[in-house]
Design brief:
It holds the Pfam family ThiF. It comes from Hoyosella rhizosphaerae. This is THIF-type NAD/FAD binding fold domain-containing protein. By secondary structure, the protein is an alpha/beta fold. The protein has 16 helices and eleven strands. It has two domains: 15-103, no CATH class; 122-389, 3-Layer(aba) Sandwich (Rossmann fold), CATH 3.40.50. Helices cover 45% and strands 14% of the residues. The strands form two sheets. The protein has a seven-stranded mixed β-sheet, with helices on both faces. A four-stranded mixed β-sheet has the order 1-3-4-2, with helices on one face. The longest helix is centred in the C-terminal third of the chain and has 19 residues, at 330-348. The model has no long low-confidence stretch (mean pLDDT 89).
């Protein structure tokens, strides 16, 4: 048989949906019975059991004053091993066809946030844990979700995106080639679950739509993150947030820069987009109006043309000719995700995080070489403005 025939014979279509992982408490009899039946019925399911590593870290978490006590550590590990399958929690991930041992939910949370202390105190960690975060747009937004989960922010996450993962997304989304073609919501949901299966997830596969308001009202996020491309959706997200008093965070990755907008609608009368659009322009977008030219101009105003590098300006004008899409760097997306998670943390902890337009510029921080000479920059800006107005 030729190679192509062999490959075609084994070609599989991976599931493009997400199922919440099934959690089995090791010490609960009914869960033991259900887990036994699952393994008997499904011989293809693998079991992953890092019990020694979990127990070792858990010993240090519970006994920081006995880290060097070898006898106490051995006794703790032996007790965990002796309990067998009753120790901890077992989680079945359908898309991996695997059952993985975890500690119980509280211990898992403790281990995941152990190294945050005392940079984040135990009481602050509990506040962050109880939060709900909504993220719309899972390109840069996926990095924000990643950082929030790593930090321990949110026992509930609302995620919305309409797009699927493509090969060109892989420079800024933590995904594998085997994820290409899958909905971004599904890929991100699986990552969240495998990191912390106890996080509740709410998915909006159509992204932000007028019907999303009902879902948001039900789950009442503490912060809404706007990472959508559509400027109409951006406006409508802010209209909703303003009416409910919910802060909005937006990150734009512009070449090496990460530009962060913070709108504290929970602290009084904050103008949507921090006043960079007129009220008339804002209302026009909320109603779905505006020509393509007007929407493009609005987007440039929102981001701020002064933050766009000459290379980026020149690149935008080549979209549809020599470029097929908007250029983005994974390093900027990752930096933006990290900074956004800090902003979200400070908002949830009710610290002094003011509304404003914040710019993270590695070139300025590291004193790197500029892209072009001043005359070339001015010429490029002129050409860009002509492009936007056409």
């Amino acid at each position: 048989m030729e190679l192509d025939d062999l490959m075609n014979a084994r070609h599989v279509h991976l599931s493009d949906s997400w199922e919440a992982p099934t959690v089995f408490a090791g010490a609960v009899r009914d869960d033991q019975i259900a887990l036994t039946k699952l393994l008997q019925d499904r011989p293809d399911i693998a079991v992953v059991d890092p019990v020694r590593h979990i127990a070792d870290d858990l010993f240090e978490f519970r006994n920081p004053d006995k880290i060097d006590n070898t006898a106490a550590r051995r006794k703790f590990l032996d007790a965990a091993i002796h309990d067998g399958s009753e120790w901890g929690t077992w989680v079945y991930f359908p898309w991996k066809r695997a059952i993985v041992r975890f500690p119980n939910p509280d211990d898992h949370w403790g281990l995941r946030t152990f190294r945050n202390r005392n940079l984040i105190t135990a009481s602050e960690s509990e506040v962050l844990r109880a939060a709900t975060v909504a993220v719309f747009g899972l390109s840069v937004g996926s990095n924000i979700v990643d950082q929030c989960v790593q930090t321990g922010i949110g026992e509930k996450i609302v995620m919305g995106d309409t797009d699927t993962v493509s090969p060109t997304n892989l420079n800024r989304i933590r995904a594998a080639m085997s994820d290409v073609g899958l909905p971004k919501v599904v890929v991100q949901a699986r990552k969240v679950s495998e990191s912390n299966p106890f996080v509740e997830q709410v998915h909006l596969e159509r992204g932000y739509t007028p019907s999303s308001d009902t879902v948001l009202d039900e789950h009442r996020p503490d912060v809404i993150v706007d990472e959508v491309d559509d400027v109409v959706s951006k406006a409508r997200i802010r209209r909703y947030a303003q009416s409910r008093g919910i802060p909005v965070v937006m990150v734009a990755d512009l070449a090496d820069k990460a530009v962060i907008d913070v709108e504290r609608h929970d602290q009084g009368n904050v103008t949507p987009f921090l006043g960079r659009l007129s009220q008339q322009e804002f209302e026009m977008l909320c109603e779905g109006g505006g020509t393509e030219k007007e929407r493009r101009q609005a987007l440039v105003k929102i981001v701020g043309a002064r933050h766009i590098s000459p290379k980026m300006l020149a690149s935008v004008m080549q979209i549809g000719t020599s470029l097929a899409g908007f250029p983005q760097l994974g390093s900027a997306a990752t930096a933006g995700g990290a900074l956004a998670s800090v902003v979200i943390r400070e908002i949830i902890l009710d610290r002094k995080m003011r509304s404003g337009h914040y710019v993270f510029s590695p070139k300025r921080i590291l004193d790197l070489q500029r892209d072009m000479s001043i005359p070339a920059t001015a010429a490029t800006m002129w050409n860009f403005r002509t492009y936007v107005r056409r």
